[in-house]
Amino acid sequence: MFTTGSKLLIGSAVLATLAAVVYGVTQVDSLGIVGLVSAALALSFLAGVNVWARDSNVSAMDATAVASSEAADVPPGNSIWPMVFAVGAATVLLGLVTQQSIFTIGIVILFAAGAQWTIQAWAEAASADPAVNETVRSRLANPLEYPLLGAVAVGGIAFSLSRVMLWLSKTNTVIAFVVLAAIVAAIAFFFAFRPSVTRGAIGGALAVGAVAIVAGGVAAGVDGERDIHVHETTADLAAEGFCASPEEGEPDENASQTVAVKANLAAEITLTRSGTLEFDVPGPLEEGGLGLTLPRANPNNILFRNDSGEHRRLSLDLGMLTEDEIAAVEEAAAEDEAHGDEAHGDESHEPFDRRQLCTTLIESGSAQLLTFTIAEPSQIYEDDPEAYRFFVPGTDAELNLVVP
Amino acid sequence: MTANERTSMHGASTPGTFGAVTHHGRLARIGAIATLGALAAGCANDAPQDTWQPAGDNAQKIHDLQWPVFLIAGVVGVAVFSVLFYALWRYRDTGQPIPKQTHGKPALEIGLTILPALILIGVAIPTVGTLMALADTDDTDCVINVTGQQWWWEIDYPVQDGCGGISQPIVTSGQMVIEVGTNVIVRGTSRDVIHSWWIPKLNGKRDMVPGRVHTNRLQADEPGIYAGQCTEFCGLSHANMRMEVIAMEHDDFEAWKANQIEAYAAPEPESLAAEGEATFISQCARCHQVDGLETADGELQIARPDLNVYSGAAPNLTNLMTRNTFAGASYDLLNETCRPLVWEAPSDRVGERYNEGVTADCLNEVELREWLRNAPAKKPMYTDPTKLEETNSLPRGMPYLALSEDQIDQLIAYLLERK
Ligand SMILES: [Cu+2]
Q1: What are phi and psi of B391, to 5 degrees?
Q2: Quick one: A50 and A35 in the same domain?
Q3: B323 C-alpha to center of ligand 1: Å?
Q4: Please, which residues 208-267 of chain A have a Cβ atom closer than 8 Å to chain B?
Q5: Does the residue A143 lie in any domain?
C-alpha cells in the first residue's frame, strides 16, 4: 500500500492538521493557525509527491518486495545525519539557557538534519543497489538542497562583503571593489578562453575565493565598522538654540547628499550671492507679494540652496514660545548641564524664547532639506513678533512665510 | 466506482441538466439586459462627469489622444477576432485528413512582429507628447493648492501675482473658483491617505499623496460648474468626497476674489447672529477657522484643528455662504428653488449668479440643520468617541456635538452672514 516514507509524511500531515484544529479551537491568535495550517498543507503536498513518486515504483508496491527483497535485507549504510541531529538538539538546549539566536540556529540544524535523515533512510529502502538508492535520494532532496544551500552561500558572501565595505573607508571601499571586480572578470575571461582548464581548477579557484571572502568578512566584522559621522538633526539644533546663530562647529560637507525628497519639494529657497532669499515653487509663482505660502497641517519639504559664498544655514522663525514651553526648554538645558552634556560645550549660546527650526550650517554651493509641519495659520503677515519668517543668521536676508 | 454508482449518477444527471439549461437561460437574459443597461447608461447626454465631453484644452488634449487610440484598438480587435473566428469555423473538424505539418513561416512571423511594433510606436508618440504637455507647469497663470483629507478637499489660493493677483491667502473647501480661459495649476497633496483629484471634463485624474506635491492643470473654455469626485478609495465616505470647479468670466472672478478677502464683519450686537457668534466660538471655533473672528477679549480666534481632528484640518467657514455645496460638496447649500438658477444658468450668467451666494431665502436649511444636529448621521464618518483608540481619540470628520435647537437657530443666523 503506502510506502514507508509516505507513511511518515502522511502521519505528520495528519498531526499538523489536528494540531491546527486544536489550536484553532482553544486559541484566538491567528498567527499560530496560519503556521500550523501552512505546515499541514506543506506536509500533505510532500506526502502527495511521495506517494505519487514511489507508487510508480513497482518494488515499493509489491508487499513481498518490501518484506523480503534484497533491499529489505541490506543493512542501512553509514549516515552523518544522526550525529548532526544530535548537534542540533544540543544547540537548541544551549540556546534555551543562553541566547535566542543560538536557539534559532539549533532549530534550523535540527530540521535540516531531520529532513536529510528521513529522506536518506527512506531512499535506502528503495532497492538493493546503493547507486540506485542514491539517485532516488537525490531526486527528492536536490530540489530542496540546491536552492537552500545556494541562498545560504549567496547570503554568506553578501554579508561578508558588506562587512568588508563597512570596515574600509568610503574611498578605499570603492577602490578595493573596483579592483576585486576586475580580478573576477579577468579570471572569468581566462577560464572562458581556455576550455582545457579542468573542473577541479575552476572549483579550486572558486573555493579559494569563497574562503578568502568569508575570512575577510569575519576579520572585518570582528574589527568593527569604520567611524560613521552622526549628523545633528534639525531638532537637535533647534533644541540647543543654534537656529539664531551663524556658528556651529564645522559646516556639514555632505549636506547635498540628502537627496531623498528633492524630487518633491514644496519650495526651493536660495540664498543668493547678493544676500537675498529667493524662492521657487512648482508652477508660475515667483517671489513677490507677501512671501511664500505653504499649506497648514501638512509636512512641507523645503530645499535650501546656499549660493552666498559663505557657510550659512536657513532658519525658520514661528513666533514666540509660550511661557510653559520656555520653562520646559530651560529645564531641559539645566538637566543637560547637570549631566555634563558636552555636545556644544565650548560655545555659549543665548537662552531663547522663540520657536525656531533650521538646517545645519552648509557650505556655499550646497543644498539641504528642511521638513516641517505647521499647525497654526499665520494670521499676521506684516512685521510683527508673531509673524512667520525664514531668515539666515548672520545676514539680513528674510522671507515671509504665509500659512493660510 | 462501482457500476451501480455510475448508473445512478447518470440517472440523476438527466433532470439536473435540464435544470441547468433553464437556469443558464435566465442568467443569459439577465446578463443581456444588464449589458444593454450599461451601454445605455454610457449614452446619457447630460452626464456631468464625462471625459468624452471635454470642456477645456487639457481635457481636449486627452480627448484628441483617446479617440484615435480607441479607434486603432477597435480596428485591430475586430481584425484579430474576425480572423480567429474565420479560422475556427473554416477549419473546424469535419473528419478531413490532417494537413501537411510545416514549421514556421518567417515572412509572416517577421511581418506580424513589425506591424504591431509600428502600431505601438504610432500610438506611443502622441501619448508621450500628450503626457508631457499635461505635465507642463510653466505655461500656467494661476496657482491653487488642493489638499485632500477624509472626506473633503481644502482649496487655497496662495499669495501671488498669478490668478490676476492675490494679496492675501484665500481658503475655501469643496468648490474651486477659476477664471475662464486661464490655465490653472493645481498643486495637490493629502493630509491622511491617498486621494485622487479628477474633474473629468477639464483634465485627467491625479493621485494626491501625503508628503508629495502633485500637479494637475485645469482650464475651462466656457463659464460653468464642472463636477468631479475623489477617485482613489479613501475609506468610509469616499463616495461623499466630491468637488466642483466653477469657471467664471474675468470680472466675476475679480469680484469673487475681492469678496473672499473682505474683512470680517461682526454681527449686529444683540441679534440672533451675535448669539450665534458666541455659540460658534464656544462650540465650533476649536476646529473651524473664521478669519478675523475675535474672542470676547479682543484676541484673534485661531482654530486648532490639529488638536481636534485626525487629519489636522476642518473647512474654513469664513465665506461658507459663497459656496453652494458643503461637506465634501455632497449636499446643497441652495434649496430646490434656487439651485437651478445657478446650476442651470446660461453660460454668461454663471459667475454673476454664483457670486450672489446663499441668501436666507435660498438656504437649504433642512440639510444644514441636519448637519449641525448630527453630522455623522448625515455623512458616514469615524467620530464615535468610544472607537477612536487608533487615531488618538481624534475624530475623522465632524463629530456629534449635542447642540440644542436654539443653538442651531443662532448658528444658522450666524453662518448666513459668512459671505
Ligand atoms: Cu478621497
Answers
A1: -115, 30
A2: yes
A3: 20
A4: 261, 264-266
A5: yes
User: Final residue of a domain: which of A198, A228, A258?
Assistant: A228
ipTM of the complex: 0.72
**Chain-chain contact of A282 with B137 (C-beta, under 8 angstroms):** yes
Give CA angle at A341 (A339, A344), nearest 5°.
160
B47-136, which class in CATH?
mainly alpha
CA of A341 to the centre of ligand 1 (A): 48
Q: Do A402 and B158 touch (CB under 8 A)?
A: yes
pLDDT in the model for residue A63: 62
Neighbouring residues of A32: CB distance < 8 A, sequence distance ≥ 6 = A23
Residues A335, A357: one domain?
yes
Per-residue pLDDT at B23 = 55
Alpha-carbon distance A336 to B233, whole Å? 48
CA distance B376 to B367: 13
Same domain (yes/no): A376, A263: yes
Among A228, A252, A282, the domain boundary falls at A228
Identify the pLDDT of residue B339.
93
User: Strands across the sheet with A367-373, in order?
Assistant: A277-280, A267-271, A299-306, A367-373
Domain B141-419 belongs to what topology?
Answer: Immunoglobulin-like (2.60.40)
Judgement on whether residues A271 and A370 belong to the same structural domain of the protein: yes
pLDDT of residue B46: 67
Q: Note whether B160 contacts A289, CB cutoff 8 Å.
A: yes
Q: Are A126 and A132 in contact (CB under 8 A)?
A: yes
Are residues A287 and A381 located together in one domain of the fold? yes
* Residues in the 5 Å CB sphere of ion ligand 1: B 195, 230, 234, 241
What's the predicted TM-score (pTM) here? 0.68
d(CA A373, nearest CA chain B) in Å: 10
In this structure, the answer to whether residues A144 and A217 fall within a common structural domain is yes
Q: Which domain holds residue A369?
A: 234-402
Nearest to A370 by CA among A236, A242, A265, A253: A265
Name the residue facing A297 among B140, B141, B313 (closest C-beta).
B313
If one counts the domains in chain A, the total is 4
B293-334: pLDDT as tens digits: 988 888 888 888 989 999 999 999 999 999 999 999 999 999
- Together in a domain, A398 and A250: yes
Domain boundaries, chain B: 47-136, 141-419
Q: How far apart are CA A122 and CA A5, in angstroms?
A: 5
Q: What does pLDDT average to in each consecutive run of 10 residues of chain A (404 residues)?
A: 75 90 81 87 87 60 60 68 92 88 93 91 81 87 90 93 90 92 91 85 89 92 80 69 73 62 76 89 65 84 88 87 74 65 46 78 85 80 74 88 85
Low-confidence ranges of chain B (pLDDT < 70): 1-46
Residues of B in contact with A381 (CB under 8 A): 168
Distance from CA of A290 to the nearest CA of B (A): 7
Residue of A298, A371, A380 to mutate for B, most B C-beta atoms under 10 A? A298
* Residue A282 forms contact with B (CB below 8 Å): yes
The mean pLDDT value of chain B amounts to 87
